[in-house]
Amino acid sequence: MAPPDNGNDYIDFAKLIALDKLDDTTYRSKALAFGPANGNRTYGGHVYMQACYAAAQTIPRGMALHNVTGWFLLLGKANERFTYRVRKIRDGGYCTRYVDVVQESGSVVCFTCICSFKRPEKKSMATIDIRPSLDLRQEYAAVLGDMKPDEHQEVPGVDAPWYWEFQRRNNKYTDPFPGLKLRKVDMDPYNSDKPPLEKRNLKYYCVRGGMPSVEDDPNMHICAHLYASDRNSLFVISNNLGIGNDYSQIASLSHTVIMHADGPELSMVDAGTGEPIWFVQEAWTGGSRHGRGLHQSRMWREDGLQIASTMQDGMMRLKVHDGEEKAGWSPELMAQQLENSLRKDRRKGKL
């Protein structure tokens, strides 16, 4: 039997993030990564969160990730696994790690990141706790109403107009996304009278399946938040700026996440019931210039605790009519790829 083209399947997060240890500083993914539009181009959030989880295997117990910046250097292949090579930069009260990532078919680094871990502050230490809070239900009453998170639509495989049209023609089909449950809030009533830079996007997320306790493995819980943070992020830029399908190249260049919460505040499951906890990502764009776009977000617990801030620099190039477009990048070619893959699945009886 031929190997799968990607990891598009509703599997548990604990299975998705699992690693094989090759030696004390080298780890390899077990599960394949999600391929948007059922393609071979990897969702960047997979390698981003898993590189941090590989780094977490090399630090003392009890330390938790609080800051990471990663750079996407080459397209990942969704039908190949990733190898993570961790290098120690610093140990101490803060531990810093550098991670280079390669895939099975080559030795060229496709992703690299620097991540920092720290211990919880001692209760005897005086600290400052001044932070924003947000009443989501009040601020976004026009779009949230009384709806529960899972009553909103499933996040589309690609959050772009061409994919929405594809869904309308194919019984609301969306690519199965591993690891997390994701729900997209219809923001049109909130955004309709706002200029592009003031528009907001809301996305609910929670884990699939069971998790070790946050006390036993805080970094697995943190990595679930990292995994959610990059989902369809650049399409917030194109959609809010009115570009729609008028891009020729769109890709993440770098992504930064800063955690503002600690320990139980970041737990993806309720300690009492074991049920998954829903979180919300509130996202917007700071604009686009020089072939790039800026994605920003705040990540919230539903009770108004901000757990993280994110910032992403992405490639954002407009179409050049009569110009040659790159496979896997343009809306037209991605739509054609998805239509072809669905036809094959129907012939094989998978759908």
Automatic annotation (TrEMBL):
Q: Which Pfam families match?
A: 4HBT_3, 4HBT_3C
Alphabetical UniProt keywords: Hydrolase
Q: Which domain of life does the protein's organism represent?
A: Eukaryota
Q: Which residues form the Acyl-CoA thioesterase-like N-terminal HotDog domain?
A: 39-117
The terms under GO molecular function for this entry are:
fatty acyl-CoA hydrolase activity
Asked whether the keyword Chaperone is assigned, the reply is: no
Which residues fall in a coiled-coil region? Answer: none
- A biological process from GO: fatty acid catabolic process
Residue span, Acyl-CoA thioesterase-like C-terminal domain: 185-316
Gene Ontology cellular component list:
peroxisomal matrix
Matching entries from PANTHER family are given as:
ACYL-COA THIOESTERASE, ACYL-COA THIOESTERASE (AFU_ORTHOLOGUE AFUA_1G12060)
Member of which family?
A: Belongs to the C/M/P thioester hydrolase family.
Name of this chain's protein = Thioesterase/thiol ester dehydrase-isomerase
Q: Which organism is the protein's source?
A: Extremus antarcticus
